[in-house]
């Protein structure tokens, strides 16, 4: 099974507002950068969710993935909260609809295709992969705004 390391980040300025996501993937000596964004109104949480979704969906075969995010929302959601949400018909413990359910469902599906271990890292703390993902999210935001993209735009490098 392939082993892949992924760092992801999202950005939204202002929040809510235009947003971007970025992912840095490493497989042995091979590296790939992905980014995209939305020029319309979105949220930081949606961009934080889109980054790992797009990274996992970009993998072409089942992989063992070490996925790093600086989003407690994403890591806690996928490792702890999502099981209860699914059990409750995508409702919170307070019986409210789960926010961003479309993306949570997509992330669950993407994770099912791989063996993913989730890690939280402190943002802006000098971790190279996280800093690269942050720059990619900012680039995705800038490119989406420049293009006036209403949906999720993406570029790979």
Written description of the protein model:
The chain has 157 residues and is an alpha/beta fold. Helix content is 40%, strand content 33%. It is built from four helices and six strands. It has a six-stranded mixed sheet. Helix 1 runs parallel beside helix 3. The chain is globular, with a radius of gyration of 15 Å.
User: On the 0-100 scale, what is the average pLDDT?
Assistant: 94
Biggest sheet architecture: 6 strands, mixed
Order of helices and strands: EEEHEHHEHE
Shape: globular
Helix content: 40-55%
Would you count the extended β strands for me? 6
Strand arrangement in the largest pleated sheet: 5-4-1-2-3-6
Can you summarize this structure?
The protein is α/β, with parallel strands linked by helices and 157 residues long.
What structural keywords apply?
157 residues, six-stranded mixed β-sheet, 33% strand
What's the layout of helices and strands?
Layout: E1 2-12, E2 17-27, E3 30-42, H1 44-58, E4 63-69, H2 72-87, H3 101-112, E5 115-120, H4 128-147, E6 153-156
Helix pairs in contact: 1-3
């Amino acid at each position: 099974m392939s082993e892949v390391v992924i760092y992801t980040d999202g950005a939204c300025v202002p929040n809510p507002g235009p947003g971007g996501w970025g992912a840095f993937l490493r497989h042995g000596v091979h590296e790939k950068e992905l980014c995209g964004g939305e020029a319309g109104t979105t949220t930081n949480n949606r961009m934080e969710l889109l980054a790992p979704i797009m990274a996992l969906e970009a993998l072409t075969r089942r992989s063992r993935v070490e996925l790093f995010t600086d989003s407690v929302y994403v890591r806690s959601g996928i490792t702890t909260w999502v099981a209860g949400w699914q059990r409750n018909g995508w409702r919170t413990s307070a019986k409210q609809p789960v926010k961003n359910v479309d993306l949570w469902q997509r992330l669950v599906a993407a994770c099912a295709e791989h063996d993913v271990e989730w890690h939280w890292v402190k943002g802006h703390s000098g971790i190279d992969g996280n800093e690269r993902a942050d720059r990619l999210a900012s680039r995705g935001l800038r490119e989406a705004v420049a293009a006036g993209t209403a949906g999720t735009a993406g570029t790979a490098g």
